[in-house]
Amino acid sequence: MAEIPNIQRTYKVWAADDVVYGPIDFPLLSQWVREARVTRENWVFTEQTENWSRAADLPELGLHFQEANSMLQPGTINSALIPGVPVGTLQGVGIFKSMTDQQRGRFAQCMEVLQFKKFDELVREGDAGGSMFIILEGNVRVRKMISGKENVITVLNAGEVFGEMSLFDQGKRSADIVANSNGVLLRLSSEVFNRMMDKQPEVAAPFLLAIARKMSARIRADNERHKKDTIIMRSRS
Length: 237
Prior knowledge:
Layout: E1 10-14, E2 20-25, H1 26-34, E3 43-46, E4 51-54, H2 62-71, H3 101-109, E5 112-116, E6 121-123, E7 131-137, E8 140-146, E9 149-156, E10 161-162, H4 166-169, E11 176-179, E12 183-189, H5 190-199, H6 201-236
Helix pairs in contact: 1-2, 5-6
């Protein structure tokens, strides 16, 4: 039987998050290998031969693994195979740290990947809520416009979240979110999260706990600032 050229083959990848990705063509598979999204230990299904094999056992990937080894920095951690999500970024998100690799991957699969550019207005004060966002790359500023002037409340960097309260109450946005740079976001809608709580409670539960801890820390910090402001005002009176 004649050998099937690589370009004609299609594959599926069984990733670390227990999700099967594909079918994909060879150029995309080789790209995932070079980006360390597919390791030698991943199982790969070749549709033309209907066989599962370790990626290391596919001869057509040999040169690409060599290239990946030369490019990969020591200590790099692979990310789940989520299209558009930079490698290694999910592990740097605080609300994901208490999750296993499988939980993290399945959770992120339910989120929408959004690219943004510098100066984009990602959220507008007063708009209806209903979704939260996780910053994977870049940074944004939280602002309120007062008498036509911009008042920057804080700057959020990669790994931080915003809009999480509206995920639960669908309330109006309390401030603008404006991009300070190009970057990548994950968006989770309340509708999707409600389905996740119903169908995948083992994934939703650690996320809820992480959000509760984050909100608790924020309330404590606000209370501490209020306490200090009160002491300062009293000392001036």
